[in-house]
């Protein structure tokens, strides 16, 4: 089983914190859509023996596309790949794109999972991040979407400068009131070369406070788990039966193909990434040349990737799998490096599986990096 990710590199405006690849001009939308279709055609042999179980439209802002344009891309996938009978098909959308008519049309389309980028239910937070929607649109988009979709997820951001714990708890309460099956929530990170980074350096916006960010993560964890959500991956909370198949496949190391500028692909042994320039991407595809770079992963790379992705999940790290796939030297190293974190109650050993504890979740990525193999091949 495998997945296909399609990167739609267009947005109405640039959020101050975002470092994803996109353009605020739609002038190249037509040629871009043709190029996406052509890349799908050029690469169909890569997955000739794979069944496609998930299709994910990310970006950028995929909801800027017309329904007919989305369906055309889906038709290209179905005509060139072996797609299972009922694949999970997710569309990322911004509230300002989701008029009643647009949501109804999406509900009538092949899309069966809607991911809405709410980020906050408060205008002051949305303005600070330069989001294109306001709090009212956040509310109406979810209310309307629930009329046509059972499988809805929303994104929320915590650790926003100036957002108190009380306002964050209000955000969580507002999200819970919709009784959605899935919520994703991320800490605001200050990425290089973003407007947010510049504003913080100039003193226009206060810096992110790590202590407050951790407090808000812990509030999120407590309140969502109390309402029956399962924190199946550090940033993702789902009701039973509503985990994201697309994201779960990524964390479990399944194959995926990334279509579009800046999109990444993984086939189990190599990683590839497309050029992150719209014009160069289009020109290259028009010449039937795939504009990507790739690297073959060493055993050490594959081990480190398994550690990073697995530790973030409820399934954890299988010591038996490490021993079988990578050898005794790796499993011995893993157990030795894990020991101090187990003593500190940041990790726990259950059978032959290493899991991050509730206490260790906020520190998960740092712990994982300390379990990485540095020297062995």
Quick structural gist:
The chain is built from 14 helices and 15 strands. The protein has 377 residues and is α/β, with parallel strands linked by helices.
Overall 3D form: globular
Helix count, DSSP H or I runs of 4 or more residues: 14
For the biggest β-sheet, the strand order reads: 7-8-6-5-4-3-2-1-9
Structural category is: alpha/beta
Average pLDDT confidence is 95
Instruction: Tell me the number of strands.
Output: 15
Low-confidence stretches: none
Task: Report the C-alpha radius of gyration, rounded.
Answer: 21 Å
Helix content: 40-55%
Main pleated sheet: 9 strands, mixed
Portion in beta strands: 15-25%
> How do the SSEs run, as a string of H and E?
EHEHEHEHHEHEHHEEHEEEHEHEHHEEH
CA-CA gap between termini = 29 Å
Topology:
Layout: E1 2-8, H1 29-42, E2 51-59, H2 67-80, E3 82-93, H3 100-108, E4 113-119, H4 123-129, H5 135-145, E5 152-158, H6 165-177, E6 182-187, H7 195-201, H8 210-226, E7 230-233, E8 236-238, H9 245-251, E9 255-259, E10 264-266, E11 270-274, H10 278-286, E12 292-296, H11 299-311, E13 317-318, H12 319-326, H13 328-343, E14 347-350, E15 353-356, H14 364-371
Helix pairs in contact: 1-2, 1-10, 6-8, 11-14, 12-13
Write up this protein.
By secondary structure, this protein is of the alpha/beta class. Helix content is 41%, strand content 22%. Strands 7-8-6-5-4-3-2-1-9 form a nine-stranded mixed β-sheet, with helices on both faces. Strand 2, helix 2 and strand 3 form a beta-alpha-beta unit. Helix 1 runs parallel beside helix 2, helix 1 crosses helix 10 and helix 11 packs antiparallel against helix 14. The model has no long low-confidence stretch (mean pLDDT 95).
